[in-house]
Each structure stands twice: as structure tokens, then as C-alpha cells.
Amino acid sequence: MDTEQTLHNNMVLDLSRSIAPGIDGWTELLDLFNNNPLSKTEINAITSMQKLFEKLVDYETIKVGKYGKVIKLLQSNGKEQFNVLVKIMQNCQDAIAEMKNAAGNQLKPADNTGTPMQSVKKSEAPSNQLTSDDKTETTMQSDREHLSPEVTPQNVGPSGGPSSDKYPRSYTKREARGKKGLMVIFNFTFKGENSERKHAPVDKKHLTDFFKNELGWYVKDHEDCTVAEVQKYLEQARTTLKKDKYNNGSCKYYCLFVAVMSHGEEEYFITKGGTKFKYADVFSAFTNKKLPEFAGRPKVFLMQSCKGKELQNDIHSDHIHDKCPILDDSDILVIWATTPGCKAFAKSSDGSFLIEVTIKHFQKKFASDDVECMLSDIRRTIAYDPKYRSTPDATEPYRQMPCTWSTLTDKLYLIRYHCLLGKRPR
């Protein structure tokens, strides 16, 4: 017997036969979803009807058996070719509704006296095992309505039970809809000094071009700050997140990024005037305990600085045993430019290795990959690409090995900000 998910999957196949990349109307179809709810980058990454429906499910524009929003959008376009798509979706929606009604009628008592039904024996209970149809390539969404009470998320303990995707999530793509990220940059140039970071303006441009211009995030840039100024701007950022509410009660920000670009050592970076500032003091300013209003939302720290004076050559071990003073805190990701005790490199024309490579990978893959997935590619590129070698007064090339420390509890995606339905929240 067909399930709701099977009917949904078959519908997607039928739609694919009617319109696909390279066929007249495909580009026009995708344009209907531009900023409603998909970004241009997300649209450019869609190569099939299946991919389109996966995105629409992510944004909850559709659910299995509920296609009204898309049907209405297609009808409003007036293109005759879309009438076929409307008919396919409407037929599937009607069939699923009829299936639900039939299932509801089977559960009614035999008489109308209101006598409660007898308990169903366990052997007669619906099976929760996926059918072969649930495993086909066109599966877009798990059929969660078919889960028995014994395996629903609220009844599962911390060990065992269903996979983690059954648990509530705090920063998935759908949770970020209509919200933006907050980016705080501390960029130290040391202009006019012997230790001047001539690549600092390039690093700043890489970050602002992507996070502000590409993603539409709110970016605050601070340059050559003293210790007191760093503390002041950290407090300002924390205050911003404490008051993170529109007038309608919804949140503005789903994520925080803090970038620190300076000279540094194992436990601190250098501020204006040569004063040291501990990395730990940056992290601890945004812990869940100190910032309960932002608890459960991701905080990412991008630390572009040396962590010592050692040089890494081609046979340097990349095993990382880093200490972090905030082990008990969740939803934090720290991205270090290099491993403990070692130097980080840059080129005046391209900027810091970490910033340049990170932004290049973010621009290329943010629409499809989560941050930690992209970080593995970033580490590999900096470690092994011949371009990212430095020869500081030596006859052999030296390498740089970035490392990360994470307590993120979910996949973190970089979401371009756009207002839902074209209306900016107040």
C-alpha cells in the first residue's frame, strides 16, 4: 500500500519529467522562489526538481501533502506550462488527504455510543520500519507521523533511541529564516610600527565582502583598539544580543561571529600599544551563563594570529592537543589560524592564509555545506596547497596548520539574510 511519503516522492518524479534544467520554463520556475524564500546563491546551486523540493522543505514552504503555497505561486504566474505542474501537485495533495481521511475512519468505533476503542495489540500496531520507497533518491522528508510513541523525541533518553535528527534543533536553516548573523571584527594593523600588518586591509575586505555584502549580516568593524576599547566593544556586542528582539518579539540574530586579527602568542593577542589581551576573555564574554538571552545559538570565533614562534615544516605533526578555558560551554566554535606554539602567515597582496582560504570556501560552498564541513576543506587547503607555503629566511618551505575547537551541538549554516515575504520586521 502506498504511503504519504511514497505519493510525495512519485509526485516529484512526475514533476521532473515535466520540467527540468535545460527545458523551457526551468529558469522561470526558479525565479518564482528568488528571495521567496531562496537566495540567488541557493537557486544557482539547484540542479534538479528534487533539489528544489529539498530546499522548499528546509524552509517549510511545503510539507508532505501540503503544497498550497507553491500551487498558488505557480497559478499567479499565469504560464500555461505551469498548469501541468499545478495539476500534478493538486492530485497528489488530494490523494494524501483522502488517505488520511480513510485512515481516520478506520480508527472510529464500530458504533456511535462513544465507547472507547479497545487497545490495539502491539503485534497489530503500525510498523515504523522504512519501506523501500522511503529509501529512494527522491525522499525529501522523513515520515515522522508514522513514529510510534515509544520512539518520539520527548520519550527518548540521552542514550540510545532514534538518531539525532529526531531531536529539536536550535540553529538549523529553518530556524534562521528571516534572521541575520552579527559579525564583530577586531583588526589590528600596527601601522607605522616595525610589526605592521600590511595585509590587514585585505583581511578586512575579505570578511566584509562576504559577511556584509554577500550574506547581508550586520558587521561591526573595529580597528587598532586598546584593551579598554576591546572590552567596550565586546560589551556593546553582548548588549546588542541581550536586547535581540524586534517589536513583534522575534529574534534578529541567529548567530554570532567574532574575528580577531592581530599578532599573538599561546594565550593572548596584542592590542594597540602592545598590551596583551587573553583569548579566553573574548570567549567568556559570550558564554551561555553570561549571556542567557543568546543561549543555544552558535558563537564562532575566528582567531587570526600566531600562537607562538615555532615554524611548521612539511613533516610537522598535525595532531592537536589544545586547551580551552570554556570546556563546559556549548554552542561555541573557535577557529585558530595555527596550532599551539606555531606561527601563522600572510601575504600583503592576498591577506592572511586563514582569512583568504576561509572566505573563498565560504563563498563557494555556504549554500550547501555547514561550517564544520567546510572547515575540513579549509584545513586541508592551507596545509597542503603549494600556494600556502612560507619561507621565512629558510631554505625549506614552512607550513601552517589551522585547528578548531568546537562544542556546537548542531550543523551551523551561513544563511543569507532576507525578509520573509519581502517585509522587514519592525
Automatic annotation (TrEMBL):
PANTHER family registered for this protein in UniProt: CASPASE 14, APOPTOSIS-RELATED CYSTEINE PEPTIDASE (PTHR22576:SF41), MUCOSA ASSOCIATED LYMPHOID TISSUE LYMPHOMA TRANSLOCATION PROTEIN 1/PARACASPASE (PTHR22576)
Region (Disordered): 105-174
Species for this entry: Mizuhopecten yessoensis
Domain Caspase family p10: 329-416
Membership in a protein family: Belongs to the peptidase C14A family.
The protein's name: Caspase-1
Caspase family p20 domain residues: 183-310
Bias-annotated ranges (Basic and acidic residues): 132-148
Pfam families: Peptidase_C14
GO terms under biological process: proteolysis
Superkingdom of source: Eukaryota
GO molecular function terms listed in the Swiss-Prot or TrEMBL record: cysteine-type endopeptidase activity
Regions of compositional bias (Polar residues) in chain numbering: 112-131
